[in-house]
Amino acid sequence: MTDLTNIVEILAKQALGGQQQSGQNSGGLGGILGSVLGQLSGQQQNNQNQPQSGLGGILGSVLGQLGGTNNNTSQTNSNTSGNTAQTLLIAVLPLVLAWIQKQGGLQGALDKLKSTGLSNQVQSWVDPQQANAQDVSTQNIQSLFNDQDIEQVAQRAQAPKQEIYSAIASVLPQVIDSLTPQG
Question: Which of 149, 158, 150, 154 is nearest to 41 (CA)?
């Protein structure tokens, strides 16, 4: 999970750090997800020779580096399910980052989470004094995220929607933790 934690931290800070400059990501969520999942599965994309900007470019760069690392560590069948889970976590990362942006940035996302009854969880994610981050339920995630966006990720990742909700529940605390100054 160290690779995922590093990815989350790098992507979240870079993507959301530039949100005031770019306004919206070019290519939208679909383009970002296609880029991420295409790189993870080793597929060639038609626009590979064109430089990518925004979150898609950031994801492509970082995931390309991760792909090189994982090729050396995924030589046994026991790692296959772990890599599949990691692929799902990475697939939902753009969705989580886009959701944070839609809330107006980190503070807006924190306010939204707190207003839906997740104050204790949020506090555990942002407080460096708390050793263990509290989990968020998939029911809470379902109420926060647009079902159409979830369906799109599920189709692209070829995974059931429930697995997408579970992956978001795993990634969201890490992203929030990575974005907070003391996180």
Answer: 158
What angle, rounded to 10 degrees, do the helices at 161-179 and 106-115 form?
120
Count other Cβ atoms within 10 Å, centred on residue 9.
16
Please state the separation of Cα 2 from the chain's center in Å: 15
Q: Measured between alpha carbons, how far is 56 from 21 in angstroms, rounded to an integer?
A: 15
Distance CA 92, CA 71 (A): 21
For 7, 61, 178, the CA distances from 3, given in Å and listed in that order, are 6, 14, 14
Residues 12 and 178: beta-carbon distance below 8 Å = yes
Q: Max Cα separation, the chain?
A: 47
* Whether the predicted model's global pTM rises above the 0.90 cut: no
Alpha helices, DSSP H, located in 42-53: none
Instruction: Collect all residues with Cβ–Cβ distance below 8 Å to 158 and sequence separation of at least 6.
Output: none
pLDDT in tens, 49-75: 444 444 454 454 444 433 444 444 334
**For residues 126 and 133, what is the distance between their CA atoms, to the nearest angstrom?**
9
What's at 109, amino acid-wise?
Answer: A
Query: DSSP assignment, residue 118?
Result: -
